[in-house]
Amino acid sequence: MAIMLEARQLGTTIRGRNVLNDLTFSFQKGYTYGIIGPNGVGKSTLLKLLSGVLPPSQGDIFLEGRSIAAYSRKEAARKLAVLQQGVLPPIGFTVREVIEMGRFPYQNWFGNEAVDCSPIINQAIAAMGLEKLEQRKMAELSGGERQRVALAKVIVQQAEVILLDEPTTYLDIGYQIQLLDTVKSWQREQGITVVSVLHDLNLAALYCDEVLVLHRGRIAALGKPQHIYTTELIREVYGAEASIMNHPLTGAPQILLAPNVRINNGELE
Ligand SMILES: Nc1ncnc2c1ncn2[C@@H]1O[C@H](COP(=O)(O)OP(=O)(O)OP(=O)(O)O)[C@@H](O)[C@H]1O
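Structure tokens for the assembled complex are given below, as produced in the milestone run.
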């Protein structure tokens, strides 16, 4: 099995505070990984380290065996595409123009490409259900529509690794499933590696081959959801009481949260 991304003794300090410590793990080519953990634990920070935009304070990241720091910007962008959280898209442009910006790693100095990129742009527009919106200005879209444009822009980058920071933010449950299904079929078709920060542990169990759980700046668990999701882990990491059931269709572990108030015959007391 080929290793696509590897972290060795990775650590980072932000404003004198140790956020992530001694993380060592590897992600295999062609797999989907979820990064989960409580608010503020460092999930987005880990994604920034993996994409090379934030240099680590300790340790190193290897992309196909080569330190990420040794890649040029365009070289890295052809290998790795990132959907960042909360980054405002350029609102003066149309949907199609913004998606075309995802092709920058393949453009020359004048913004031209050697091959016609319209087939891949059209494919991404269709995959994200944006056909009717392609001439709309970004400023005229809802939060969920903008998120779908941002993902289409990532898809057209045709990278081997995609890093997604909370890709389901702003999306209703229908679009959450549509987006994750699109990413999954894209991943299978192209054999790419997907690393996604997810808050929803149930979606992570449905879509990820393996999940990395962060707790207090370290790895609390890394493995298949059915092996690592336990009531003890949920209690330790989130301080929440949960029951774990198997999904009736897929068998994936699904977490049911238990309210702290007492329940009698289905009524809260
Ligand atoms: N630019 C910054 N300046 C100061 N502290 C920061 C900065 N960026 C992140 N932090 C801190 O680093 C820690 C990790 O932040 P990060 O955004 O990676 O967490 P997260 O797990 O993605 O959180 P969430 O689930 O809330 O999105 C937090 O305590 C945060 O306050």
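The first strand starts at residue 3 and ends at 14. The chain has one domain: 3-221. Further analysis is deferred to the final report.
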